[in-house]
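User: What would this chain look like folded?
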Amino acid sequence: MKKKKKAKAKSKPKARKVTRAKAKPKKAKRAKPKATKKAQPAKPKLSVIPPPNSVLLGRVEDYYAHINVIAFTLRNTVRLGDHLHILGHTTNVEQTVDSMQINHQSVTEAHAKDAVGIKINARARRGDYVFLIRG
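Assistant: Here's the prediction, encoded as C-alpha cells.
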C-alpha cells in the first residue's frame, strides 16, 4: 500500500506587527551641589527665658507624681546642695538638690550623660527645662 501524502494547505505568511523602537527615557541632569560649608545642627530654641547666671542641665523626661521625682539626662555636672530652677509652660520651681539617684542608688554627684532622678517639692511636667543656678 502506498501512503497517501496529505495535502498541506499553503499558509500565507503571517503579517508581522510593526513595532517601534521604544525611546529611552531621558535621564534628568542633576545639578551639582555647590561647595558650601557643612551645616551644623542648630541649637533647639528654648520655649522659656533662661534665668540669669544659669546653665541648662536638661529637660524633664518623666515626672513621678506619687513620689515627686523628675527624671532626666544631664548635660552638665550637678552635686547635692546645688540650686536648681525648673521652668516650663506652667512650672516655675526653685530649690536645692536634696536627694538624687542613679539607677535607684543615692549619689552625691552626677556627671553629663547620666540619667538621674531628683526629688522636688512641687509638680513638674514632661518637657520642662531644668537649669543649674551658678553663684
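DSSP finds no helices and eleven strands in the chain. If you want, I can go into more detail on any region.
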